[in-house]
Write a structure and sequence with these properties.
single chain; about 475 residues; alpha/beta; Aspartate Aminotransferase, domain 2; 2 domains; 7-stranded mixed beta sheet; 4-stranded antiparallel beta sheet; 15 helices; about 10% strand; globular; binds pyridoxal-5'-phosphate
Length: about 475
């Protein structure tokens, strides 16, 4: 994996006069665009754009692509992130002209097919989650959390019962407390019991009239299913509180069990995880929110409706929390998700969940002789190990960095916080057994190296494009702008 070329930025490769296209000379008179468009044409100074030839550009991006690790290259076991392989048919469909070239401001009469697609997806998501209504607007999981918490807030305030506190277990995803805090709630942590689940006695003791809701990540970030979830819902509802389920990990549940049936009031779904949109580079995602009927009047505006056989956007929603995103959500992510759901079918989705759990448990049993588990209970779609017992003073970070030398993307590290030196592995259902075996062999080799030559492991990565970065300096003193 040696990479001899240090790729410069396009702006540093600028070569005045060099062009990447040959255009025949113009055979019509030149026109100053300002004579046609007036003030809409801004600024006379030409933009500074790098001047390059086609081969310069192609090589630049091709080289950069080889510096990247991708799920199309190999196992990407990043726990909680569900880096599964995304079938290429989704991409084909999302690129169809009728979808890709649609404008969000087109009149409804010209977009009936797209609206039907969205309505079909909403219905599918309601069926998968056991919920009554759904919005496709939110652009990501955390954005869905924010939207869902706003629904709870609007509902409670509408009852004249504004409450202040959001309960969140210590095994929740980190975005949960952030979303609750951002929505103006005081966040209170609920301790996990020794089994990694919510401590019911602690929960009951906390049931006071100031509790707006609980936010539960199910399965939680330990990969453990909240076995008392139905009882937790009853405890909260008896207190007049709501239950929010973080459904980003639906990969472990779909086709098997439904949050709506447990008693959850509202949840979000990560289409870019469970329903197969490539993610990880900050590209577009979608975090639809599904809820029970009592929260439906508060859904973001506009809401998709059907009258006399035609789809339309209903904007007359007086109780709505308002819009949470421009236009109608990240439409092409919705196209991919529906394509995935339709090609899988109900049986296929269930099978995917089963295989996601099977693969995680395969990794768990294969890695157990090498690493120590964070919690001993049964796990679903991911497994968390701790750093206890790593030889030679080697840390979780050292192991993760050395995995890069072996050609793997490292797992999620140091999360969840309740496991010391956590190493969180989620192979997903799309990994073949050989690839998982290759990963286990790499971990075994690194553990052996740690016994024999820990200093070498601690200095990893050795073969990567970059050596170990100073993460503290990067966080404390980030350089966010480019200066030539
Ligand atoms: C990924 C994830 C989120 C956040 O989703 P984003 O799309 O990254 O905002 C929330 N909860 C859980 C459990 C997740 O795994």
């Amino acid at each position: 994996m040696s990479r001899p070329i240090e790729e410069k930025l396009l702006f540093e490769k600028d070569h005045p006069g060099r062009v990447g296209a040959s255009v025949p000379p113009s055979d019509v008179p030149e026109v100053d665009p300002r004579t046609l468009f007036g003030d809409m044409v801004r600024g006379a100074a030409p933009a500074f754009l790098p001047e390059m030839s086609e081969v310069d550009v192609v090589r630049h991006f091709t080289r950069l692509s080889t510096y990247n690790y991708a799920v199309d290259f190999g196992l990407y076991p990043l726990g909680s992130c569900t880096m599964k392989y995304n079938p290429k048919i989704n991409e084909e469909v999302a690129r169809l002209e009728g979808f890709a070239r649609l404008h969000p401001l087109q009149p409804e009469s010209t977009t009936q097919g797209a609206l039907e697609l969205m309505a079909t997806l909403q219905n599918a998501l309601c069926a998968i989650t056991g919920m009554d209504a759904c919005t496709l607007q939110p652009a990501a999981g955390a954005h869905g959390e924010f939207t869902g918490v706003q629904l709870i807030r609007a509902y409670l305030e509408n009852q004249g019962d504004a409450r202040k506190v959001m309960l969140i277990p210590d095994s929740a995803h980190g975005t949960n407390p952030a979303s609750a805090h951002f929505s103006g709630y005081a966040v209170e942590q609920i301790q996990s019991g020794p089994d990694g689940c919510v401590d019911l006695e602690a929960l009951k003791a906390r049931m006071k009239p100031d509790v707006a809701a609980i936010m539960l990540t199910v399965p939680n970030t330990l990969g453990i299913f909240e076995k008392n979830i139905a009882q937790i819902c009853r405890i909260l509802h008896a207190n007049g509180s709501q239950v929010y389920v973080d459904g980003a990990n639906l990969n472990a549940l779909m086709g098997i069990t439904r949050p709506g049936d447990w008693g959850a009031d509202v949840m979000h779904i990560n289409l870019h995880k469970t329903f197969s949109t490539p993610h990880g580079g900050g590209g577009p995602g979608a975090g639809p929110v599904a809820c029970k009927a009592h929260l439906e009047p508060y859904l973001p505006r506009p809401v998709l409706a059907k009258k006399e056989g035609r789809y339309l956007w209903d904007r007359d929603r007086p109780k709505s929390i308002g819009k949470v995103l421009g236009f109608n959500g990240n439409f092409l992510v919705l196209v991919r998700a529906l394509c995935y759901i339709e090609t899988m079918g109900a049986d296929g989705l269930k099978r995917a969940s089963e295989l996601a759990v099977l693969n995680a448990n395969y990794m768990r049993s294969k890695l157990r002789p090498l690493l120590e588990l964070g919690f001993d209970g049964p796990t679903l779609h991911e497994v968390v190990f701790c750093d206890k017992g790593l030889p030679g003073g080697v840390t979780t970070l050292d192991l993760a960095k050395r995995l890069i030398d072996y050609g793997f993307h490292p797992p999620t590290v140091y999360f969840p916080l309740i496991v010391h030196g956590a190493l969180m592995i989620e192979p997903t259902e799309t990994e073949p057994r050989e690839e998982m075996d290759r990963f286990v062999e790499a971990v075994a080799a690194i553990v052996k190296e740690a016994e024999e030559n820990p200093a070498y492991v601690k200095a990893a990565p050795h073969n990567a494009y970059r050596r170990r970065l100073d993460e503290v300096a990067a966080a404390r003193n980030p350089r966010l702008t480019y200066k030539p």
